[in-house]
Design a protein that fits this description.
119 residues; mainly beta; 7-stranded mixed β-sheet; 4-stranded antiparallel β-sheet; 0% helix
């Protein structure tokens, strides 16, 4: 089992910045992939950014160049730095951890943190 606890959400004006944090209950190096997803009202949950245990990153086109995902393995924490925020970034942001085994993978989700960007 892996527990994930998100923090750092809040209300910010357009153009502002926020940093989300996701603390894992076990070593982040043992987690194949960690990432951030978001879900706006009436929309499906979608990928924002991921980072592998090897440090490879991936971003949604809508956030590339504005958001940065990083990990602090000593703290078992993954961060999402969000700059130049737009009202359309408003959503509940969820942290996800995935452990990939030979024939299957396990996924774990955090409870989510609300990000609201006012225009």
């Amino acid at each position: 089992q892996v527990q994930l606890v998100e923090s750092g959400g809040g209300l910010v004006q357009a153009g502002g910045s926020l940093r989300l944090a996701c603390a894992a209950s076990r070593s982040s190096l043992s987690l194949s992939v960690m990432g951030w997803y978001r879900q706006a009202p009436g929309k499906q949950r979608s990928l924002v950014a991921t980072i592998t245990s090897g440090g490879n990153t991936n971003y949604a086109d809508s956030v590339r160049g504005r958001f940065t995902i990083s990990s602090d393995n000593a703290r078992n924490t993954v961060y999402l730095r969000m700059n130049s925020l737009k009202p359309e970034d408003t959503a509940v942001y969820y942290c996800k951890a995935e452990i990939r085994y030979t024939y299957y993978s396990q996924e774990y989700w955090g409870q989510g943190t609300q990000v609201t960007v006012s225009s």
